Amino acid sequence: MKNEPWDKHVMDGIVAVNRNLHKGGLLPEKAQRMLYGLEDCLCSGDGLSPQTAFRAQDERVAAKAMELLGMDSHGQPERKGAISQVPVDENPYGVQALFFSIVG
After folding, report:
1. Among the residues of the chain, which ranges form H helices?
2. Whole-angstrom distance, CA of residue 58 vs CA of residue 60
3. Chain centre to alpha carbon of residue 39
4. What's the pLDDT tens digit per position in 65-85?
5. Core-most of 3, 23, 24, 30, by most CB within 10 Å?
6. CA atoms within 13 A on the CB side of 73
């Protein structure tokens, strides 16, 4: 499923993360790990299907990615093997659920 407005929104999220990672100052180690985790997650797919699921190192990174993208969940994630399907609230992209593969 191709969703160009969503793809641009994800790219904007990647740009925001990179801006924070490389703005010049030394970040605390914990913040740096989270930002690199977010970068890896957002660069791993578009989250719109099990085949293009965002790959996150843990549930915390998945939750931060959703927060960064402005997506609120309205239900419990459904696990299907290694993939979690998270239903999301109404949004301007028409996305009904995000898919995550938790690798950690």
Report:
1. 4-21, 29-43, 59-68
2. 5
3. 9
4. 999 999 999 889 999 888 999
5. 3
6. 17
3-state SS, residue 98? strand
C-alpha–C-alpha distance, residues 9 and 22, integer Å: 20
Q: How far apart are CA 12 and CA 50, in angstroms?
A: 22
What is the rounded average pLDDT of the residues 89-104? 94
- Please give the residue that has the higher pLDDT: either 24 or 45: 45
Q: With bands split at pLDDT 50, 70 and 90, how would you rate the model's confidence at 1?
A: low
- Rounded to a whole number of angstroms, the CA Rg of the chain reads 13
Asked if 55 and 43 count as a contact pair (C-beta separation under 8 A), the reply is no
Pair 68, 22: CB distance under 8 Å: no
Angle value at C-alpha 80, between 13 and 34, nearest 5 degrees = 30
What average pLDDT does range 8-26 have in this prediction? 90
**How far does Cα 68 stand from its chain's mean position?**
8
